[in-house]
Structure to design on (303 residues):
């Protein structure tokens, strides 16, 4: 449904995206977990045609590109960006905003009240935006995008300003929307939350996707041991740790477990119990751990 083909973007000598190649299909939530300044917004801007890449192209539904005006209109009809809170009109009501987006994208006009209800907005949505709190504004931004009902949605920090119960509410909506067949890109700093609704999580570094975490097929378990660098060095001297282990953030050793034959598993359990004083952690790796792995040294980021 959406392909990024060898996208490169540089601002002077700052190469922000470097031959980025990626495709996604309907019914997927693509999470993007990356520290500030790694190029998430730039990537969204290229997808939305706010920014022309130096190289490469974006292709929608296997045929539409930002080449002709006709194609652009087709793409814009199927694409929305989560509005920014700063873009809201203070003297208009929430309902006005939701209707505006529904009209502009020819979206769910009939379903506006159900969107309001499902996001618990009924008690405030007819008041002017200037009376709203941060969380109320953020739910409105989400409701506007939901009302536009486009097939592709780009969301930068969708959970911005939301409390725990609203994070959970929006997470449920994202899952519902992917079952409706939407393709959604969600950049978020709430890493563990991404594992709840994302299908794949991309890790951007140096302008490239350095890792793609497949959340749905994540059944490989690891024995996890908290070890400082000296303990880690001693450990790998003493034990024959498989090469494909991870040592994350100079604190966490993850030894592949489920891929080992049973006798080796037993042996590693005994070793782990010896080190961790009878506590055993055997689990999968989540977005948070990959984040620590790839961004432990973030000094390369320029801003
Ligand atoms: N218009 C611009 N001119 C010059 N440099 C830019 C421009 N836009 C972005 N950059 C630079 O590109 C890099 C990536 O910026 P971008 O906004 O894409 O990052 P981000 O991952 O979205 O960050 P954040 O999480 O802070 O929003 C940064 O080094 C930034 O300074």
């Amino acid at each position: 449904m959406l392909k990024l083909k060898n996208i490169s973007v540089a601002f002077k000598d700052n190469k922000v995206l470097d031959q980025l190649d990626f495709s996604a299909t309907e019914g997927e939530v693509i999470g993007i977990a990356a520290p500030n300044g790694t190029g998430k917004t730039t990537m969204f801007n290229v997808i939305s045609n706010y920014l022309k890449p130096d190289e490469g192209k974006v292709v929608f539904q296997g045929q539409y590109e930002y080449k002709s005006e006709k194609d652009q209109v087709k793409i814009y009809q199927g694409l929305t960006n989560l509005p920014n809170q700063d873009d809201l009109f203070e003297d208009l009501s929430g309902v006005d905003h939701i209707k505006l987006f529904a009209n502009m994208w020819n979206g769910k006009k009939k379903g506006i009240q159900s969107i309001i209800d499902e996001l618990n907005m009924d008690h405030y949505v007819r008041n002017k935006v200037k009376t709203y709190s941060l969380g109320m504004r953020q739910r409105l931004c989400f409701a506007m995008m939901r009302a536009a009902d486009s097939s592709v949605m780009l969301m930068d920090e969708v959970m911005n300003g939301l409390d725990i119960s609203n994070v959970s509410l929006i997470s449920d909506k994202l899952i519902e929307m992917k079952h409706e067949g939407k393709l959604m890109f969600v950049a978020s700093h709430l890493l563990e939350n991404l594992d709840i609704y994302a299908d794949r999580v991309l890790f951007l570094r140096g302008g490239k996707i350095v890792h793609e975490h497949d959340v749905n097929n994540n059944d490989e378990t690891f024995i996890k041991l908290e070890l400082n660098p000296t303990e880690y060095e001693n450990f790998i001297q003493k034990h024959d740790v498989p090469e494909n282990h991870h040592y994350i953030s100079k604190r966490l050793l993850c030894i592949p477990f489920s891929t080992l034959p049973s006798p080796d598993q037993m042996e590693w359990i005994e070793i782990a119990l010896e080190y961790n004083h009878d506590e055993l952690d055997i689990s999968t790796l989540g977005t948070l751990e990959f984040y620590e792995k790839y961004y432990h040294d973030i000094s390369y980021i320029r801003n």
About this structure: The pocket of adenosine-5'-triphosphate is lined by residues 11, 14, 16, 34, 36-42, 302-303 (CB under 6 Å). The first helix runs from residue 40 to 47.
